[in-house]
Amino acid sequence: MTVKQRTNRKSPGSTNAVPRSDTRNGSERESARSGIRIDWRRIITRMLMMTAIMVAVYFSKANKTVQFAKQDEEIGKKFVEISCSEDYAEELRQFRGCTPRKCGRMVSDSLIKPGEVAALRNIAERGLALGGSSGGASILDLHSGALSQGNAFVNIYKLETSRKIFTGEDFKIYSHVKGKIQHAIADHFGIDKGQLYLTHPTFFSRITSAPPKTIHDEYWHPHVDKETYESFHYTSLLYLTDYGQEFEGGRFVFIDKDSNKTVEPRRGRVSAFTSGSENLHYVEQVTRGTRYAITVSFTCDPKHAIEDPKLER
Ligand SMILES: O=C(O)CCC(=O)C(=O)O
Ligand SMILES: [Fe+2]
Known about the structure:
Layout: H1 26-33, H2 40-60, E1 64-69, E2 78-82, E3 103-108, H3 114-128, E4 132-133, E5 137-141, E6 146-150, E7 152-155, H4 162-165, H5 168-189, E8 197-207, H6 225-229, E9 234-239, E10 247-249, E11 252-255, E12 259-263, E13 270-274, E14 281-283, E15 286-289, E16 291-299
Parallel strand pairs: 1-12, 4-6
Antiparallel strand pairs: 2-3, 3-13, 5-8, 6-7, 8-16, 9-13, 9-16, 10-15, 11-12, 11-14
Helix pairs in contact: 3-5
The structure holds 2-oxoglutaric acid and fe (ii) ion.
């Protein structure tokens, strides 16, 4: 999904003031003089990451596929640890006790109750009925209010109809479910729950087989969440529809060197993983039916923390 809502990377109080003791190198000083600050380290890291992704995608085409979580199996809990990428190196000391040191993937079908899943599916259907992309992929971000509509987005909270659509109970369920996922992530990845914050975007998604109309409909590209969404350290997905029954295609695929690993969406299934390049992934194109899911994302950086969405406005 390309709800790429890039955040302002400066904290609210920060300024562009020149540091008191100028320890910058020549090109940095030159850039500062011209008013443009070029972060070479960031650019090179990005280029290396893009190259790594392209190489991995190239080899993944020939990869065999292994089912990590099949739709028709009920998984109590499954956790697989994998080595962490270098992506967290700079943050290890900054967010000690939260930045991933133990990386991996977790799937559980027993975390969220069927009633909670039904309620969330109902919220997704009600909310997305107010809009919808003209291509195949629509989102509703409960925090910002972003709702796909036609070829763009509107703010659902500005729509008169939305006041009658959501209730306090809807947001309570979302918060409760989010809390359970947060707890499970802290537990499995061995981190402190108190240091793990909800971050944006956190959104419902609805995918159909309609042909794409804009870049926002192109959800199937391999990507790294930490790169796409920046603030993410842990990604979780809660699936609200059954693969093979309510839709075809739309499996979630981790791209690994040795093989690809698929997670088949199943109602109530939670899939959570560390957001760095150790978990490069994509979603297969949906070929029939409608696929609903929620992305619930977490950060270790308090600067990017958001409050639980609530009834307001
Ligand atoms: O819906 C999914 O299974 C995953 C979507 C995804 O990869 C993303 O939003 O970054
Ligand atoms: Fe993703």
